[in-house]
Amino acid sequence: MNLLILLENTDKDLDKIQNALRNTECSLTVEEGKITIKTSTLVGDVDLEDNNAISQIWEEVKDFIDIINGSAVVEGFSMSSVNLHLIKYIDANGETKILSNISNNYAVLPGLRGSEPDISQFIPLALGDKTVAKALRLCSRELDWINLYRIYEVISEDVGGLAGKEINIFTGSANNSSVTGDHSRHGKINVGTPKETMRLADAQHLIKSKVREWMYNKINS
Length: 221
Hints:
The chain has 8 helices and 5 strands, in the order βαββαββαααααα. The chain has helices at 14-20, 51-75, 122-128, 130-139, 145-159, 165-174, 177-180, 200-220, and strands at 3-10, 27-31, 34-39, 84-90, 96-98.
């Protein structure tokens, strides 16, 4: 199905987004100062009379953008938030039509530090690997203790377990309310404090580094 993904992003973000998507079949255009991503492979042919199918298209497009944003979070890629505006499609007669917005709840990417990273390999990897896609979608959201632990679980399940001193300190801190308070994964109050603990900023750095290492291992394998 030929989709046109219209973004809130203006032409000033064109080079960054184009660079991020350069290893996909997507093409980018600018109309009236706003960026549009054109793709023919993200979604297969669907029955547009079916509201569930339309909802699924919206979800897949939002997942796709979350993958872009999650890639930027992991790699520290400097670009503006990628914000979805609406979706259009090209019908069998070649006419461009707006896809009904059944549900459009959406989370966006915060500003990131400037650097020279490259996320273009992450996106095609995620489009072919549902585990990577899930990890990157999670990375596009708030990196609190609970979400960091979810990301850790995704990677751990995929590789058959994560071990090491830093991981043990991370899990001990994430699970212990005496360390992380109301942000702990567990609600128990009367628990002892681990000998070694980790700050949230250090936990974020650790998990992002684990995601990067995990994905590059997949890319290079």
